[in-house]
Design a protein that fits this description.
With 256 residues, the chain is of the alpha/beta class. The protein folds into two domains: 88 residues, Histidine-containing Protein, Chain: A, CATH 3.30.1340.30; 117 residues, CBS-domain. It contains ten helices and nine strands. The strands form three sheets. Strands 6, 7, 8 and 9 form a four-stranded mixed beta sheet that branches. A three-stranded mixed beta sheet has the order 3-4-5.
């Protein structure tokens, strides 16, 4: 992302561009904007309730993530984090099964001796919708004293946003830019990715988007040739986009 946070106002071009007039309105960064960027690992990683504790430990280690959602038949049922796994008896931590009424001890025992995700997972999962603003997510993390939230789209898991993801968003903002504005390069980039994701065959996962001073550059490949030109036109029509440099190629099928 560019270090410049404002697109210069060209009064003569405002009349020609109509809807693209630089109005510099405040803009919201939403959960789906963050998920659409390389801030968050993609595709969405999750496990089933019968995934073993060792398999989950290996997954967290290999993917360099600190937690993984647990999904059963499309429904979010829990999350397993590093905090759940460090309580294991294999590490020397011992707990005993208590009688009725000592649920806390029994939960601890399940986390230390349980063999599957459904045994060790945290069941009280905090979720937000993909349209939740980043400000609201930050408030949720702080007030509930948690490190991450699950993001849903139509009640299905869309991704995970953690505190470290939000810090990366902060690092990508131009220094001294203040609150996000609709003509910021990073806000434009969020909108470009969102538009490409909405066009079938545009292959957003194969596209790299960069924005500098309102000029959008698209690199990578497009899976469906029929989506190439419509996606470029759609990006051109995003407010505050000055120019689109489309350097994407068409993905060629392999010959067998």
């Amino acid at each position: 992302m560019s270090g410049k946070s404002r697109v210069p106002v060209d009064q003569s071009s405002d009349l020609d561009r109509g809807s693209k007039k630089d109005v510099s309105k405040p803009a919201k960064i939403r959960a789906k904007d963050v998920l659409a960027t390389d801030f968050v690992e993609a595709p969405v990683i999750y496990v089933g309730p019968k995934k073993t504790v060792r398999e989950i430990a290996l997954l967290l280690t290999n993917k360099k993530i600190s937690a993984v959602p647990v999904v059963d038949d499309g429904e979010i049922v829990g999350i397993v984090s590093e905090g759940d796994l460090i309580q294991r008896h294999e590490l020397g931590r011992e707990t005993s099964v208590a009688g009725q009424g000592s649920s806390k001890v029994n939960v601890d025992y399940a986390k230390s001796h349980g063999m599957h995700a459904c045994d060790v997972m945290t069941r009280n999962v905090v979720t937000v919708s993909e349209d939740t603003s980043l400000v609201e997510i930050v408030e949720t993390l702080l007030t509930k004293n948690i490190r991450r939230v699950l993001v849903t789209r139509e009640a299905k898991l869309a991704g995970v946003i953690s505190r470290s993801d939000i810090v990366r968003v902060l690092a990508a903002r131009p220094e001294g830019a203040g609150e996000p504005m609709s003509n910021d390069d990073d806000i434009i980039r969020f909108k470009v990715i969102e538009v490409i994701m909405s066009i079938s065959g545009a292959s957003p996962w194969l596209t790299t988007v960069s924005v500098s001073n309102g000029v959008v550059e698209l690199n990578g490949t497009v899976q469906d040739e029929a989506a190439h030109e419509p996606s470029r036109i759609a990006v051109e029509n995003i407010p505050n986009v000055v120019e689109v440099k489309d350097k994407r190629s068409i993905l060629q099928p392999y010959a067998y």
